[in-house]
Amino acid sequence: MHMAGTPLTSLAVDSRAPQRTPLVGVADAEGSTNAGEPLKGDDTGAGKQLEQSGGVQVALAVCQQVSGAELTLAAVPPAPAVARDPVAFFEDEFRDFELTISRLARLSLKRALDVLTAGAALLFLLPLFLVIAAAIKLTDRGPIFFVQRRVGRRGETFRMLKFRSMVVHAERLRPRLEIRNESNGPVFKMKLDPRVTPIGRFIRKYSLDELPQLINVLVGDMSIVGPRPSLPGEVASYEPWQYRRFAVRPGLTCYWQVCPRRYQVSFDDWMRLDLKYVDDWSLRLDLDLALRTFGIVLGGTGE
Question: Quick check: pTM over 0.85?
Answer without folding.
Answer: no
